[in-house]
């Protein structure tokens, strides 16, 4: 084996989603990446697997590396949940070379960590195990310093195991969505992104990823550059009229109280939080009544920013309800609050496009102003040349119809895909409509309302949000069906969701495999 194993540092990122102190570890679910993260110079038989343990296991042999070689030492890194001990970084025995203080009580409190430590000791009885606990306030300077010391003080065959819980939200579906985003981002082994992820202990992974850059690491590390684009997309948001009356009466947060979750988690952890802003922002806006002329208070832009909305469409039939000067005040308010926007009320033009990083949104309107479909197609073709991902959102279709119109929606929607769009998201009909898989791309014809005061119909109070993950060779969309009562949306419970999915399926013509995906709460297409 010679030089092949002279210098190996293998990163295993192990995620345990469980009650941390219970010690109950069952149900294996492993994602395995053979020789993707490490390329060896000799002997294909000596391939090393890098594994991400997604859920739980009662046998570490299921995920620890099967190799004919022993490791000299293992660093086992986890969060100090109990906050016992004086220092941000602790061990259970004084590691003099690293100048890490020991704390018996910190490890005594971490029962789950202690249980996994014993499993690892049983699997590697002759290997030196160096456990480290890190408090979540540990600074990057402290972690960088520790990584440097480990790299210089400890040579040879080194295994690093970092333990961190994934997200845990009030909704199983939201947790799955956030977990998939986290796992895809983690494949990059990029320490700079870990503090933006919904993780139990970002410092633990930061240290593991920093160590992967050190000279201890043997071979050429594969780093995934296909980081996902993640989007949370909502339908129509009308924040005036009686909605504003309720917000003034009960506080602006009233409309999101039943869906936001702890620390507004429903609106977090994605690159984009998008919705259709169904009206202008001007002055004090208009509250109460049933007027079909909308206007929102100028405090709405800050309110949207508070809930992490970072992109809204201004391409709809109410965008100039306060005149063209109302469009100007809307843009000024959004810009001041740091909320980006896209869309022109009557044209497919440069104002229709929002660019950021490697993606773009094209926001269109085809209700009160007839959209020039040819101009829209040409615009999409031009934008396609500049970005990796392209999403078209459009205000279109007939109100209160659950099935998309062929001439007004299906035909142009397919043309947008043919022109280069990766996905089309529609709004305006005030009810959820069918969707379509077209050339391995997705067209959601209408998400329905998100915030509105159309209380006279149950269907106008059934809503759909989309959790979208886009990568080079696939698009996965998590479905979040919601119910609204008095302008307060909430996620459907399991019984409601099961019945609603059956209703949703009835809106379109789907294959059995697509129906099964709907029942499981997601749609996935691959190139």
Topology:
Layout: E1 8-14, E2 30-34, E3 38-39, E4 49-53, E5 73-79, E6 89-91, E7 101-102, H1 104-109, H2 111-123, E8 128-134, H3 140-153, E9 157-163, H4 172-186, H5 202-212, E10 220-221, E11 229-237, H6 241-250, E12 272-277, H7 300-306, E13 311-313, H8 323-337, E14 340-342, E15 353-356, E16 359-365, H9 373-384, E17 389-395, H10 406-419, E18 423-427, E19 435-438, E20 441-444, E21 449-451, E22 462-471, E23 474-485, E24 488-491, H11 494-506, H12 512-519, E25 522-526
Short summary of the structure?
The chain has 527 residues and is α/β, with parallel strands linked by helices.
Task: Provide a descriptive summary of the structure in words.
The model is unreliable at 1-69 and 217-222 (pLDDT under 50). The protein has helices spanning 104-109, 111-123, 140-153, 172-186, 202-212, 241-250, 300-306, 323-337, 373-384, 406-419, 494-506, 512-519, and strands at 8-14, 30-34, 38-39, 49-53, 73-79, 89-91, 101-102, 128-134, 157-163, 220-221, 229-237, 272-277, 311-313, 340-342, 353-356, 359-365, 389-395, 423-427, 435-438, 441-444, 449-451, 462-471, 474-485, 488-491, 522-526. The longest helix is centred in the middle third of the chain and has 15 residues, at 172-186. By secondary structure, it is of the alpha/beta class. Helix 3 packs parallel to helix 5 and helix 9 (373-384) runs parallel beside helix 10 (406-419). It folds into two domains: 2-221, Protocatechuate 4,5-dioxygenase, Chain B (3-Layer(aba) Sandwich), CATH 3.40.830; 229-526, Metallo-dependent phosphatases (Purple Acid Phosphatase, chain A, domain 2, 4-Layer Sandwich). Strand 19 and strand 20 (441-444) form a beta hairpin. Strands 11, 12, 13, 14, 21, 22, 23, 24 and 25 form a nine-stranded mixed β-sheet that branches.
């Amino acid at each position: 084996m010679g030089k092949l194993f002279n210098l190996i540092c293998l990163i295993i990122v192990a995620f345990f989603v469980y009650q941390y102190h219970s010690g109950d570890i069952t149900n294996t679910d492993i994602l395995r990446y053979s020789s993707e993260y490490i390329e060896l110079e000799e002997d294909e038989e000596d391939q090393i697997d890098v594994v991400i343990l997604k859920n739980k296991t009662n046998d570490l042999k299921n995920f620890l590396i099967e190799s004919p070689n022993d490791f000299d030492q293992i660093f086992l890194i986890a969060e100090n949940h109990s906050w016992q001990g004086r220092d941000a970084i602790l061990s259970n025995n004084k590691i003099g070379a690293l100048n890490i203080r020991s704390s018996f009580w910190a490890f005594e409190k971490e029962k789950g960590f202690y249980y996994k430590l014993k499993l690892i000791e049983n699997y590697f009885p002759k290997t030196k195990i160096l456990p480290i606990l890190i408090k979540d306030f540990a600074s990057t300077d402290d972690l960088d310093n520790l990584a440097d010391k480990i790299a210089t003080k400890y040579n040879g065959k080194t295994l690093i195991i970092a333990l961190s819980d994934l997200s845990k939200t009030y909704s199983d579906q939201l947790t799955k969505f956030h977990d998939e985003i986290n796992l895809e981002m983690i494949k990059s082994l990029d320490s700079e992104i870990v503090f933006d992820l919904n993780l139990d202990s970002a410092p633990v992974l930061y240290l593991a990823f920093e160590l992967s850059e050190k000279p201890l690491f043997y071979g050429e590390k594969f780093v995934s550059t296909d980081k996902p684009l993640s989007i949370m997309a909502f339908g129509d948001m009308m924040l005036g009229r009686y909605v504003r009356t309720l917000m003034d009466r009960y506080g602006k947060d009233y409309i999101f109280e039943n869906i936001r979750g702890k620390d507004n988690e429903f609106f977090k952890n994605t690159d984009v939080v998008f919705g259709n802003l169904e009206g202008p922002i001007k002055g004090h806006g208009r509250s109460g009544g049933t007027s079909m002329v909308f206007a929102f208070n100028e405090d709405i832009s800050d309110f949207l920013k508070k809930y992490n909305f970072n992109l809204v469409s201004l391409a709809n039939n109410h965008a100039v309800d306060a005149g063209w000067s109302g469009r100007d005040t809307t843009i000024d308010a959004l810009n001041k609050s740091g909320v980006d926007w896209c869309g022109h009320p009557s044209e497919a033009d440069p104002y229709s496009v929002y660019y950021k990083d490697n993606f773009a949104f094209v926001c269109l309107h085809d209700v009160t102003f007839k959209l020039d479909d040819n101009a829209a197609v040409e615009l999409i073709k031009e934008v396609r040349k500049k970005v990796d991902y392209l999403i078209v959102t459009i205000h279109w279709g007939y109100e209160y119809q659950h099935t998309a119109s062929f001439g007004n929606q299906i035909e142009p929607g397919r043309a947008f895909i043919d022109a280069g769009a990766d996905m089309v998201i529609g709004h305006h009909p005030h009810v959820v409509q069918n969707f379509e898989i077209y050339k391995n791309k997705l067209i959601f014809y209408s998400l329905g309302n998100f915030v509105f005061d159309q209380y006279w119909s149950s269907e106008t109070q059934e809503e759909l949000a989309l959790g979208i993950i886009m990568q080079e060779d696939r698009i996965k969309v998590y479905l979040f069906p919601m119910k609204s009562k008095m302008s307060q949306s909430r996620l459907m419970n399991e019984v409601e969701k099961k019945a609603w999915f059956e209703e949703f399926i009835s809106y379109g013509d789907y294959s059995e495999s697509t129906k099964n995906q709907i029942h499981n709460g997601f749609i996935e297409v691959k190139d």
